[in-house]
Write a structure and sequence with these properties.
- By secondary structure, the protein is of the alpha/beta class.
- It has two domains: 37 residues, no CATH class; 193 residues, 3-Layer(aba) Sandwich (Rossmann fold), CATH 3.40.50.
- Helices cover 35% and strands 16% of the residues.
- The strands form three sheets. It has a five-stranded parallel sheet with strand order 3-9-8-4-5. Strands 1-2 form a two-stranded antiparallel ribbon. The chain has a two-stranded antiparallel ribbon with strand order 6-7.
- Strand 8, helix 9 and strand 9 form a beta-alpha-beta unit.
- About 4% of the residues have low confidence.
């Protein structure tokens, strides 16, 4: 009887509910079953992380090379990963930050990387209360043994929400929105963000970093949005 009670107590102390299915999770915040159901990237372009046969550089990146050198994404922005990102970003589930960061750090192959978080304008930061990219980047730096530059780049003007603009207007929306205060002298830089949609914002930031002397710029993102025909159909499930 005592042994059974102790076992129950141990389960209560060391397990928590999964954010997706509410089942017990030995390593919160997501249980093993839900982790296996997360939408992984398969064959993608090494530069922009969009689908590309045999992981070759895609035609778009060959025709119009972006300012960044490569993109490393942990998952696609599909169900149920999209629910986790939304919970983290809009509902302050900050316990997801180290969980996201651990998956990202595993993908980095740079020794002692120099890490920058995608900056928020001060108005947006005041509204949200935190910079989601910075919360992830802090943990990436810890896991990867890198150096996080907290104030190397600033967003000097507020921009319209990219998600509310047509694709052709997004690059214009973020043009000259960033200001860099560092000189990199050819050093490689890793930029951390939560979601890469068209890549316009990341490309503009990479352009500014290159002007400041950065070498290779690597995008390190939690999720990559795929073209409509490539996306996973949503199911009826939310995040607690």
């Amino acid at each position: 009887m005592i042994r059974a009670d102790l076992a129950r107590l141990g389960r209560n102390l060391f397990t928590q509910d999964c954010l997706l299915c509410t089942g017990a999770s030995a390593e919160p915040p997501i249980c093993d079953s839900c982790i296996r159901n997360l939408p992984v990237l398969k064959e993608v372009c090494p530069v922009c992380a969009l689908p590309s046969p045999r992981e070759q550089v895609c035609g778009r990146c060959l025709a119009q090379p972006p300012h960044f050198s490569r993109t490393l994404a942990a998952w696609t922005y599909d169900f149920p990963l999209d629910r986790l990102v939304q919970a983290f970003k809009f509902h302050h589930r900050l316990e997801l930050a180290p969980w996201f960061a651990r998956s990202l750090a595993r993908r980095l192959d740079l020794p002692s990387p120099l890490i920058i978080a995608m900056p928020l304008h001060r108005t947006r930061l005041a509204e949200r209360g935190f910079n989601q990219a910075l919360e992830i980047a802090k943990h990436v730096a810890d896991f990867a043994g890198g150096k996080l530059l907290h104030s190397a780049v600033h967003k000097r003007r507020e921009t319209l929400l990219q998600s509310e603009l047509p694709l052709e207007a997004r690059a214009r929306n973020v043009r000259d929105a960033f200001h860099c205060t560092e000189s990199f002298n050819g050093t490689a830089v890793v930029v951390v963000d939560d979601v890469m949609t068209t890549g316009a914002t990341l490309n503009e930031l990479a352009r500014i970093l290159k002007q400041a002397g950065a070498g290779r710029v690597t995008n390190l993102v939690v999720a990559r949005t795929l073209p409509p025909g490539e996306r996973r159909a949503p199911l009826r499930q939310g995040v607690r």
